[in-house]
Amino acid sequence: EISCSLVGSEMCIRDSIPVSKGGSTTGSQTVILDVNEFAIDIIDVNGNTVKHYDSYADLKNEGGLLLPAGHYSIRATLGEDVNAGFDKPFYSGTNVCEITPQEVAKVITDCVLSNKKVTFRCSDDFLKKFNDDYSIVIDNKVGALTTQNGEKRTTYLKNTGILQFTVYATMKNGGKTLVYNYDCLLYTSPSPRDCS
Of 32, 41, 64, 84, which is most buried, counting CB atoms within 10 Å of its CB? Predict the structure, then answer.
């Protein structure tokens, strides 16, 4: 949550914010994000960036921002919205406000994980049937990542609405290599999905 007060032409944003990363699934972790690290963009009704701050800390150090009356979007982001990457979470939030002469407009922007975090856990049944040399390719149609057994990094993919998984695994009895393909349609909310 990033809170902005726009005073006729002046802006300030409230600090703080624990953000839960990973939902409520087993093995999820809580990460405390520093609001001072979020980039801030003030965008006018035509989609033009009126002012960009590399960090909220820069905005605070400037001591205020004069804006003409009008409608604006306040966008806060942390990280890079890559097509696919390991350990690349991307948080963002946007809210719209109206600035009127000599009045205060308070804007609160909730920032959420905006790309998809993908983790894999193999069932006991899978581990009984297949060797531990399996690999999984995750594809969102604009980027792809390959993970292998023992991968410690977390995969993040741009939210395109679909994820495709291809699992390559060798059977323990007989050594035959099998390929499984799964498509997973995603909702736009960042909550976990079961694609089994």
Answer: 84
